[in-house]
């Protein structure tokens, strides 16, 4: 990126006043949501509603581990932004992503959101992302009534040792118990749950097996599973410390020079699982829980262009190397 002379880690607001030459603190205007109409052919893409920013829960691998969580937007504000989307897109067929790295909806907030959305006559299905232990099952009915249809959950692992290494939770067993309850509750309300799994430093056949057994036991609640090995981003000044942490678990860079040359470092996870095996295991595990139709349903909901058809998808799948597909193919 030869024209970039400043990279801001975290939220950019603090740098905004300086960059735009304002004196004093810059404040985002109170009415602002995202102006989707600025994007060329925006009608082809699903919109986003930003609901909160930051997190601060301290997961070792995450850019937002120390970035403070902002307050959730109020239900009234979200309704206002949904109204704007309906105006801009012309109908209620959009399926926005409620963007929060770490959505923490209390039951009261979820119920108020449902009431506000229903009172406004809005009927829009949406998707969001959170931790498995942060959405309490008692908030799920309100979220469903407000339109939630898909939730992406960063489970990361079901190995207690790996969860500890990731600093994902202080009490990993309690974390997994909370995950079980949430998955069951979501499935019983017709929510599609997609779980993200991270193959991490120190991963072995045994830790992978623990995760697989947990996922097997919860397979009936899952619409899909995304699996990938940890990747370290940034130049050496930014990535050295994390690479050092991973090294303590037996992980090492595939190419030592790649942080400097490309700003991305792939890693061999352990003496037992190298990078190539981690990629193979990732695809194997995704396939175990996800069919082609599940994959298409999930991608079409939020990521594919709105006019991307099932037929086009099947043609594109037929052009792919079947060994690389992260789902089981339909006949
Ligand atoms: S809970 Fe999610 S967003 Fe927060 S630090 Fe962990 S991985 Fe990052």
Output the structural class: alpha/beta
Question: What is the CATH architecture term of the domain at 47-194 and 291-304 and 327-331?
Answer: Alpha-Beta Barrel
Beta-strand content estimate: 5-15%
- The largest sheet has its strands arranged as 1-2-3-4-5-6
Please give a structural write-up.
By secondary structure, this protein is an alpha/beta fold. The protein has a domain of 167 residues: Aldolase class I (TIM Barrel), CATH 3.20.20. 40% of the residues lie in helices and 13% in strands. It contains twelve helices and nine strands. The strands form two sheets. Strands 1-2-3-4-5-6 form a six-stranded parallel beta sheet, sandwiched between helices. Helix 2 links the parallel strand 1 and strand 2. Helix 2 crosses helix 3. The protein is globular and about 55 Å long. The model has no long low-confidence stretch (mean pLDDT 94). Iron/sulfur cluster (SF4) binds next to loops.
Summarize the structure.
Helix content is about 40%, strand content about 15%. The protein is of the alpha/beta class.
Write the layout of secondary structure elements.
Elements: H1 13-19, E1 48-50, H2 75-89, E2 97-99, H3 107-119, E3 126-130, H4 140-145, E4 148-156, H5 160-166, H6 172-188, E5 192-199, H7 205-217, E6 224-229, E7 231-233, H8 236-248, E8 252-253, H9 258-262, E9 264-268, H10 275-289, H11 292-302, H12 310-318
Parallel strand pairs: 1-2, 2-3, 3-4, 4-5, 5-6
Antiparallel strand pairs: 7-9, 8-9
Helix pairs in contact: 2-3
The site of iron/sulfur cluster has 10 residues, from loops.
